[in-house]
Design brief:
With 383 residues, the protein is α+β, with helices and mostly antiparallel strands. Helices cover 26% and strands 24% of the residues. Strands 1, 2, 9, 10, 11, 12, 18 and 19 form an eight-stranded mixed beta sheet that branches. Helix 1 packs parallel to helix 6, helix 1 runs parallel beside helix 9 and helix 3 packs across helix 9. About 3% of the residues have low confidence.
């Protein structure tokens, strides 16, 4: 690296979503000179196109401590991100779904989530718009949502206030790793930094590949829909025991419908496309849960990419085989958890002990390092 120390950053973060931005903020607060590069605009990826659901009922048991802390970030951000605490119900329509619901929610309650099992009659008394086919339900008073379209502007403001350099519409074309740091080639010229954090969501694998690291990341193409405004019928957020439905009615009367139904496409080709058949199944399940939706028109549907690895736990820690490089990706429920796990990784970069354990990327057996060797197996906290 030929750049002088005055022109070199302490940390370069690739990706300005929730996780990359909050990691950058913590690093800057810890005294580092930080720059963030983003291929689009801040919060434009999964952080800005999801349904905004903040539900503890759909989080993995092993991630519950992280979800509870991440939820507090959203609650404290409040109106700036459109945070609403509405409470939420998860519904079962068959005996097998009810058994699944009771098993999962009991474990999540034991892990610290304020979840209670309620009778169908109690659920329908509180939410009369629900189907009379409900046979079991759980309720979490903390559940709610935020407005994902406000995520990017809010993060951008936080980064500016912390004197973090944010370069939007800046694609990382290549990365050169040397003995004293990294040089990232961008359309606006090279950027030099002593340390590197890859927090690029669905593009994480392609960025890591620039450093010769193969990460076995899978990408889902989740679909979200919004309806026309209508009479206020639903107050709580609604989910399904299988996890295949998220449903909420916003203050203007429109419904947001999601649940992980798959579209088409890949990060390599840009944004995904809606698949009509899976969209129809998503809408049918929403209408089954809330029959009044049969008379409500869908205005728009879109997709967003979600990255994961085989065990569905995060990659959060040192990038295998590359000194001073780190990765933060594949956080299931990352919209809720991201604001907490981002600073945890920043603490690691700062040389501090993270408040909760991280998720060692070397546990992913298919990872190969730059010299072609296999990385050692790692452990997931709590497993």
């Amino acid at each position: 690296m030929s750049a002088t120390s005055a022109n070199r950053y302490d940390l370069l973060v690739i990706g300005a979503g929730i996780m990359g931005a909050t990691a950058a903020l913590r690093a800057a607060q810890g005294g580092m000179r930080v720059i963030v590069v983003e291929r689009d605009v801040a919060g434009s990826g999964a952080s800005g196109v999801n349904a905004g659901t903040l539900s503890l009922q759909i989080k993995r048991v092993g991630l519950m401590r992280y979800a509870l802390r991440g939820y507090e970030w959203w609650r404290e951000a409040g109106e700036a991100v459109g945070f609403k605490r509405t409470g939420g119900y998860t519904l079962a329509f068959t005996a097998s779904e009810q058994a699944l619901l009771e098993e999962r929610m009991t474990k999540k309650r034991d892990a610290g989530a304020p979840i209670e099992l309620v009778s169908p009659a109690e659920a329908r008394a509180r939410e009369p718009a629900l189907s009379d086919r409900v046979v079991g339900a759980s309720y979490c008073a903390a559940d709610g949502y935020a407005d994902s379209t406000r995520t990017g502007p809010y993060l951008r403001g936080l980064l500016r206030a912390a004197n973090v350099h944010l370069h939007e519409h800046t694609l990382a074309r290549s990365i050169d790793a040397g003995g004293d740091g990294f040089r990232v080639a961008t359309p606006g010229g090279p950027i030099d930094a002593r340390r590197l954090l890859i927090a690029s969501g669905a593009w994480t694998a392609s960025v890591a590949a620039m450093l010769g690291v193969t990460l076995p990341i899978n990408v889902r193409v989740n679909t979200v829909s919004v309806t026309e405004p209508g009479p206020r019928r639903l107050h709580a957020a609604i989910g399904h025991a299988t996890g295949l439905l998220t449903l909420k009615q916003k203050a203007n009367g429109s419904y947001l419908i999601g649940g992980g139904w798959q579209g088409r496409g890949s990060p390599a080709t840009g944004r995904g496309e809606v698949d009509g058949e899976t969209l129809l199944q998503n809408l049918r399940l929403a209408r089954f849960a809330v029959p009044a939706l049969a008379h409500t028109r869908v205005l728009r549907s879109w997709t967003g990419f979600e990255a994961s690895v085989a065990d569905h736990y995060p990659l959060a820690g040192v990038l295998p085989g590359v000194p001073n490089a780190y990765v933060l990706a594949c956080v299931r429920g990352g919209y809720t958890i991201g604001p907490f796990i981002g600073p945890l990784v920043a603490d690691l970069i700062l040389g501090r002990e993270p408040e909760l354990p991280l998720f060692d990327p070397t546990r992913v057996l298919a990872v190969t390092t730059r010299d072609g060797s296999r990385a050692a197996d790692g452990r997931v906290p709590g497993k």
